[in-house]
Structure formats: C-alpha cells, structure tokens
Amino acid sequence: xxxxxxxxxxxxxVENIRRSTRAERERWxxxxxxxxxxxxxxxxxxxxLTDSGTGAMSDRQWSAMMLGDESYxxxxxxxxxxxxxxxxxxxxxxxxTHQGRAAENVLFSTLIKAGQVVPGNAHFDTxxxxxxxxxxxxxxxxxxxxxxxxxDHPFKGNVDLNKLQHVFDTHPLEQIPFIIVTITxxxxxxxxxxxxxxxxxxQLANRYGVRVIFxxxxxxxxxxxxxLREPGYADRSIxxxxxxxxxxxxxxxxxxxxxxxxxxxxxIGLREExxxxxxxxxxxxxxxxxxxxxxxxxxxxxxxxxxxxxxEFDYLETRISQVAYLGRKLHEAGIPVQYPFxxxxxxxxxxxxxxxxxxxxxVAQTLALELYVEGGVxxxxxxxxxxxxxxxxxxxxxxxxELVRLAIPRRTYTNNHMDYVAASLINVWQxxxxxxxxxxxxxxxxxxxxxxxxxxxV
Length: 458
What we know:
Elements: H1 22-31, E1 46-47, H2 59-65, H3 76-89, E2 93-97, H4 100-111, E3 117-120, H5 125-133, E4 137-140, H6 161-170, E5 178-182, H7 195-208, E6 211-215, H8 219-229, H9 238-246, E7 251-255, E8 266-270, H10 273-286, H11 297-310, H12 313-332, E9 345-349, H13 350-353, H14 363-375, E10 377-378, E11 380-382, H15 384-387, E12 403-407, H16 415-430, E13 439-443, E14 454-457
Parallel strand pairs: 1-10, 3-4, 5-6, 6-7
Antiparallel strand pairs: 2-8, 7-8, 9-12, 11-12, 13-14
Helix pairs in contact: 1-14, 2-11, 3-11, 4-5, 4-10, 6-7, 8-9, 12-16, 14-16
C-alpha cells in the first residue's frame, strides 16, 4: 500500500493547555470587551490568533541559542545571521530589528514623505498603518480575483498591472517612493504571488525608476507555491526559487516571527549601500546599534538556523499540508473559505457565513467571537475593524472581503487540534441563521484600532 503522509518532525516537549467551559468563555470575552486580543492565553484552548512568533523552534535552533554572543557591537551572532541572509536572499546589506513592524518603521522613515502614495498588493495592517502615520496613502493594486473566495486561482496575491499602471498615470513620480509586494499576501488570504507577476512589476518599476520592496514575512511559503503551481519550477529547489524572487527586489522587510520560525526578530535586506547608510541612522534611533538592532545574540543565532529550516521542502510540505487539512475539513462541511487554501492560515468568508448580520455591526468580528465562545478557539478579524477609518473622512472603510483568519502556528498543533477547530466552526455554521446582530465600537484608537478596540453587543 502507498505510505501515508507524516510530519517531518517528532515531539520532544509539550505544553499543557486547558479546556474551559462555555460559561467561563462567555464571562471572559465579556470582561475582555469583546476583543480577542484582550484575552489571557490560558483562557484560550486552540490559539489561532496569529502565526507570528507562536511556532515551536527546533532542537538545532535551541542549541544555537546557547552559543549566542551578547556583545553590544560586532557580535559573532550578527555575522552568522548576516551570512545566512546573504546566502538565502542575496541581499548584501541588512539591518536587524526586533520585529517586522520595526523594520517597516525604519525603512519607511527613510523613504516615505507626507503626500506620497505607495501602491502594492493588499497592504497588511502595520504596513498600511506606517504609511498612513506618515500622511501618505496606500493604494491597493491586488487582482480582482482575490475578492472571489470561490475562485480557484493559483496566485491570488498577484499585483494587477493595469491598476499599478494607473497609479503611475495619475501621480507624479516624486509621489511614488516605491512599490511594495507582500509575499505571500496575508490580507487576500495568505495567497502567493507568481514569479512572472514579480518580473512584470519589476519591469514596470524599471520603466519609471521606482524601487520595488518585498514584505517578505512568508517568502518561503510563497516559494513553495511557486514550485507547486507555476510552470517551469517543479524541478527547482526552494532556495533557488527564493534567490530568483529576491533578485527582483531592491529591498525587503522581514518579520522573522513567521518564516524565520523564531519568537521575536526581524530585519531589513538592502541592495544599495547608500540606502543602507540612511536607514542605519533610523535603526540606531529606534532599534539599537546596527549589529543587534533590538535582537539579542541568542535570537540572531536561532534566526540564522530558522531561515535555513524554513527553506527546506519537507518542512514547508508539512506546514502547508496542515493548513490544507483544516481547509478541506471546512470546505467539505460547506463553510465558505478563501480558495485555494493559503500558506499560513485558513480565511473564512464571514459575509457568506453570516449574511443576516449588518456590515456596520462588524460581521467578521461577530463570527470570530462566536467561534471563541463555541470552542475556545481564538482567530482574528481581517475586516472592517482592521481596515480602520479613512484618515480624511474618518468613516469606516469596508473592504471587499470580511474574513476570519485562522492562523496556524508552525510545528505547534496536531491534526487532532485541527479536527477540534473544524468541529467548533461547524457547530457555529449549523446555527448561523440564529445570529442576526453584531457589535458596536465603544472605544477605539485613532490608528491600528483592532488591537485595543472595545466593543459591546448591539
């Protein structure tokens, strides 16, 4: 008989988690003001809030941590990480930061001025937040196919070249500091970008002399999808594909808490020495000296190992197969999810799931809260609350998709946990017609409100 699929790791240590009662969860979420971020971790049974920094490190990574050099300047850990980044990405210059949004803060402080526009494919929350904080505008140029969760398109993260051309046609060049391409594209459902699309974006950028920057938090997962889905790449290794991807970018920001498989860390990869020098000033101001930049030596060592592990095919196959396992369970039950399944998460289409809840009552947040109360499963809203208010009109922005993201930590849960998550959501699905009202905001921050928003039932 054909041998079944099995994970490419075995478990060495476990962490106990407790199953709570429904009555406890109802009380806890009320006390948290209906914000899943406000819950204590011990109030959650299966935590799919994010895959950022929540994965399990390997024995090789833990061993590397013991060899961390904590020297303030010129630590050996810095040079190990520099060598790994250069080897895997090809960028000759890099700056360590404490996480991805710190990398955005440093690089965007260097490049973005008030009044400018930054086109890209569905900028994620912190990316858009950093752009708008600097009085600039993020322009979404994602292909329209990404908004149809039922459509089987292999690269829903792609940039629409016509939309991008329109940005160049309607704005002076000095208003466009760079194009940002997010790989994989989180906001559109963890969807990959094809290498052909990256080349087309590069060609258009070259025509106008504009930089291309990659938000590369999940670059390895993107390379895996290219290998599986893009003609001509089936026989290429993941690292060969990664090299080709990054050859098309001038710089990159990285949240190493994703495809670096570490609990904390980030970096900026750069091709231009002068841009490196300019960004170094902000890195010292915001993060620390340029050879540690907010990271300890032990964390840099763990990241250097994690980057190599994340670009191994067997690891990626195990990781993405688990995401697909949950996706199939939900799809077979008739639950509307973004299809094909993404690399790091399953995204549930809340508008199709809860059609009776008015949009102004935050449909995706309503569904995420119902899932928590049902089974103690914590996901996150990728919808109107996360979209924030328009910085000019201060009206709520309603994105084309209202999604609940179930982000799966790396090497952390078993498929039994995925079965539990599926059963919890199926239970909510079976009583979906009883859910007719949602929530209203009673307190919110002026930007990135979803982290601290307080809600009440309508």
